């Protein structure tokens, strides 16, 4: 009798529980739906997460034998010097990049970079006002050529340098617009139109084109100047050809290249390889040949530089001629995984025929720098902590020569990039 009474009761309880479970499941489902609607969307997540931070910095002390602040040793008007233990006390760049991605083929990025530095050892003052060299937007996947990238704004553009001497033999930075990575035939094309202020009243417009196919790189730049100075060129043209060799001049692992550059008018002299100059005559002309590379091995690293440049009708003077020769090298000897001995060597020599007078002068510079780093067998690995001793000697006529930094100097430096 009891069993007959219990069975219906148990069945009734189970039915009730099943009904309650179904209702609970419905309530949980509704709650999850409400929470999903209150959460940030995937685009909001990307807004907070798709950020990049890049930077470069160097900081240290540079003193002469008397313990006083030393100047940078360089030939005036020459864009190259032994960099190791011979550069400004503090310099930095910090770049923020915000990405936009809607989950399809197209994307965009906003770049803003701050730049500054000083020669002051005071941590609480003396900083120069920060510049903003990068302030631009780029987009990809929005053109018929899906690999192409479009950009508009102010930016570092088409820059290439030789690291050991800080020599930017190519630098077409400015404000404008451009297209990069355009597939054309078997190669890729970069093209841009940039405006650059030369001074408070003069501007230069540069239409720059660069085509790369295999080991070859070809460049054509046309310039137009808005110059207020009389007898100064208002246009310019330059061309260059680069060839990348196999390994380090075919001798070992690494890379190497040869670069030929020629320019006329605004593209001569200090305007060769960059966004322009406002001191050149119409018939000013320049020619430059250079080579550099990097030898890589576990127990020895080497970056060399060889440069020759000839300038005709130089610095706004008819029949003025200048010849510049430069040889430099940075050998690096890893001692163990985290310690290396670095050596900087450079010699620059200038002959100048200007206003019926001949002048000749040069600068020899040598540096030794014991260095701590995370991977001493990687030339590009940073950060580095260095102590250094540096010697500079000016030779010949002291014309167009900065005499700062002459003699023995010493100091310490940290350098980092990421």
Key structural traits:
418 residues, mainly beta, 18-stranded antiparallel beta barrel, two-stranded antiparallel sheet, globular
Description:
The chain has 418 residues and is mostly beta strands. 11% of the residues lie in helices and 54% in strands. The protein has two helices and 20 strands.
Summarize the main sheet.
Answer: 18 strands, antiparallel, barrel
Tell me the radius of gyration. 30 Å
Q: How many β-strand stretches?
A: 20
Helix and strand element order = HHEEEEEEEEEEEEEEEEEEEE
- Poorly predicted tracts of residues: 8-19, 37-44
- Helical run tally: 2
State the helical fraction. Answer: 10-25%
Q: Which structural class do you get from the secondary structure elements?
A: mainly beta
**How far apart are the first and last residues' alpha carbons, in Å?**
84 Å
Compact overview of the structure:
The longest helix is centred in the N-terminal third of the chain and has 37 residues, at 2-38.
Layout: helices, strands, pairs:
Layout: H1 2-38, H2 42-49, E1 51-64, E2 90-101, E3 107-118, E4 131-140, E5 149-155, E6 160-162, E7 167-170, E8 174-184, E9 187-197, E10 203-213, E11 216-226, E12 235-245, E13 254-265, E14 285-295, E15 301-312, E16 321-336, E17 339-354, E18 357-373, E19 384-396, E20 407-417
Antiparallel strand pairs: 1-2, 1-20, 2-3, 3-4, 4-5, 5-8, 6-7, 8-9, 9-10, 10-11, 11-12, 12-13, 13-14, 14-15, 15-16, 16-17, 17-18, 18-19, 19-20
